[in-house]
Each structure stands twice: as C-alpha cells, then as structure tokens.
Amino acid sequence: MSDKPGRPVARPSQDDGTLPPVVSSPGFVDLYPHLADFLIKSRGDGQTPTTGTITLFLEQGHFKLCLNDRPLARSTFISGWTLHEALKAADAALRSNMIRWRVRGYVRAPDRQKFLTSA
Q1: CB 86 within 8 A of CB 78
Q2: Helix or strand or coil: residue 18?
Q3: Burial (Cβ within 10 Å: 0-12, 13-18, ≥19) of residue 66
C-alpha cells in the first residue's frame, strides 16, 4: 500500500472519441449540456486541441467552481450554495455567453518560464 494519497492520472495521448467518465455519467449531459460541451469539445489551433477544465472547492459554505478555458487562456469563478446550484449556474453562464472572464496575469505553462525570468 502506498503512503501517497490519490492515484496517478495519466493524460491521454490523443482524443480517442470516448467521453471522460464524469461527463459520461448518467444524466450529466442532460442536466448540464453547455458545461458538458465545455469539458468535452476540443477547441484551439488544431495542432494542440484542448478542452476546458473545472476545479471545485468549498469556501465559506459555498461550492465554488473555477472554469478554465485553456484554449483561450482565460478563467472565471462561479458559486452556489449546493454543488447542483453551482453546476447549473456554470451551465447557464456558458449558455448565455455572458461570463466575465479573467485574462490579466494568466500565463500559459509553456510561457511561464519566459514570464518569470523577464520580470
């Protein structure tokens, strides 16, 4: 048995057309279609297509989601009193396209070292 928490997660080498397990769970796509689309569909320059990601955390009794739109190098935060409320709010925000994305100060991983050494 390992002392380390969690398990290693390997990044797929290419898109094999299957849905990630969480997104393919029963009802997820039905409940949150725009959020599922954000997580499933690859976007970008075609050479290195990427998808959006979500980070979930709890703060002061709220469920908070950080939506990271990696292809466009921007992120936003959405919250709700329950996980379902937060996911529904994220889905509605993506549907309406009225999200206040944060782009200032965001540095993509390949540019990070150049950014840190130029300061």
Answers
A1: yes
A2: coil
A3: middle
Question: Side-chain half-sphere of 56: how many Cα atoms within 13 Å?
Answer: 11
Q: Please state the pTM of the whole predicted model.
A: 0.67
CB atoms within 10 A of CB 65: 21
Return the domain boundaries, the chain: 28-118
pLDDT digits (tens, 9 = 90+) for 8-48: 656 555 555 555 555 667 788 889 999 988 888 777 666 66
CA dihedral of residues 86, 89, 95, 101 (deg, nearest 10): -80
